[in-house]
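Need the bound structure for flavin-adenine dinucleotide, inputs here:
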Amino acid sequence: MFPDTDSSQTIIDCFLTAARNAGVILKTGTAIKDLVIEDEGSFRIDLDNGTGIRADKVCVTSGSLKSSPLTRAIGSLGHSVEPLVPSLFASDVSDPLLEGLAGLSVQNASVKTIPKSPPQTGPVLITHRGFSGPAILRLSAWEARTLQAQDYRFGISINWLGNTRPEELRSTFASFRAESGKALVKNRIPGEIPLPPLGAAR
Ligand SMILES: Cc1cc2nc3c(=O)[nH]c(=O)nc-3n(C[C@H](O)[C@H](O)[C@H](O)COP(=O)(O)OP(=O)(O)OC[C@H]3O[C@@H](n4cnc5c(N)ncnc54)[C@H](O)[C@@H]3O)c2cc1C
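Answer from helper R.:
Posting the output first, comments after.
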């Protein structure tokens, strides 16, 4: 999630409001130490402040379970834990075509891995090391396991015009040609593609 406010507080407020509206009771300042199934099929949740809670159902949302006591507790309940893989990362790309373009961003691009992953849309930023921005981060999250299996060597395909289809673009160029055939292409760029700085690769 990348809220318009650019502040994670918006996400926190959203969850807290939803929890409040649903009558959720929040207990903070203590951690869950163990989860045990009681004889009658309910759960006993042991907290590290020495108290416990009984529950009919338990949903564990502890983020990463790395070195958490919950890994053992979940294992003893018969669940398996998927190995962790990196997620939400930018892509390192060294290509002369990107020279001098660091800092440029396009708000509505569509990116996918090659040969084929579902496309992710949103802002893409060209950095000094390759690509970043919400669409790239989303791609790294949704393809996290596939990319790890490929040792993080993969092709990337970016449609800088979002989901614009080739036939739409052809018709846009045809009308540009009809209306102002003498104009330079750089003055009539479709969509929101920014002009590269002077001296950059084109
Ligand atoms: C630096 C950074 C920047 C990020 N920026 C973005 C961003 O811009 N946009 C975006 O969408 N995502 C971003 N993320 C990723 C995002 O923060 C995570 O994907 C998200 O927080 C995962 O939510 P979660 O509820 O699964 O886990 P978490 O947010 O990790 O919540 C798990 C909670 O469980 C608690 N917990 C763990 N063990 C126990 C226990 N035994 N007993 C009790 N409580 C326990 C933890 O204290 C924690 O509060 C960022 C992550 C990082 C690290």
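Comments: Residues 166-180 form the longest helix (15 residues). The domain at 91-187 is CATH 2.40.30 (Elongation Factor Tu (Ef-tu); domain 3).
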